[in-house]
Amino acid sequence: MTSQRIRRTGLTLLSLAASAALLPAAPAAAAAPRADLTVHLTTTDAITRGNNRAEVHVVATVDNIGTAAAQDATVAFQIPAGTTLGSGEAAWSCDAQLVCTYPYGSVPAGGSTGPLSLYLNIPDGPTGNPLTIGATVSTTSREVTRTNNTAQAQAVYGSFPDLGMFGDAGGGSSEMKVQTTGGQVMPTFSIENWGSATADDLRVAIDLPAGATAVAQPSGPTAWQCDLAAAPVVCVSGPFYPKDTASLSLPIQLPAGTADEVVTVHAKVTTSSPEWEVNSSNEVTLSYLYVTPVA
């Protein structure tokens, strides 16, 4: 082969290589959509309940941050030996080992299971000692990663007040009928300390309907001091010991109303002491239904 032919062949190969370099690359195959479950965990402190037992309230929420649905979800809790389930989210199915199954099937991409709320009875520990609780979520679906499937929350053993409130609008009911001409009613609130420590004080804030007024200090065996002109009306008492019960009956004048109109009296109890848990058990709403007077 002559040198001229060799040069021509080389030029042809270079031309082909350059043309190939200019061709667009084949697109890479797109990754298949996958689920990606994460779990968020919170807990109260561990309140001493007596008989070498304590209690925590844990809440786990599972989110799917992936691009495909997770066909199912199971949450397993890492808890002290001897823990039992006190009460919890009725929809979830939990076994004796505190492995809980989501009851509604798949968790869509970008969706959430909503809260899994459990009250757990645990072995007691020394006051001030820390306690770590864990939760791990799993699914039979393929996930982007499993490195974000576990969360932990810290609790501390101790004694705390734990307040609860009940209400009676009159006649043993949360709703009472009032004539459209208005009139005086006597909402009654009962408060209990379910905890293991004394509440230094009680503060009850009472929201009255528009146009209603508190007309006198509360009656009953519990000593209350109320600011009747405040909005809301604020009543204070205390101290309040474990297992104590207090009662507050506040005379209120309701204005005239229209038939079938409903007005409410809302009350909430708090304390300046660190409370174990403040939730809906600290609040009560009572209803009053206006009715036409019978001739």
From TrEMBL:
Its signal peptide is 1-31
Its name, as the record gives it, is DUF11 domain-containing protein
- UniProt keyword Signal present: yes
User: Which keywords does this Swiss-Prot/TrEMBL entry list?
Assistant: Signal
